[in-house]
Design a protein that fits this description.
The chain has 30 residues and is mainly alpha-helical. The protein is 73% helix and 0% strand. The protein has one domain.
Length: 30
């Protein structure tokens, strides 16, 4: 699944986390 791919790829994982942070708007500091 994509989740596993993200876990394997640190770069992609960072992008995913960044998007999540953007949606949340609370952890923008991260």
């Amino acid at each position: 699944t994509l989740s596993r791919r993200y876990t394997m790829d640190p770069g992609s994982w960072t992008v995913k986390q960044k998007i999540l942070v953007s949606i949340d708007g609370s952890c923008t500091r991260l």
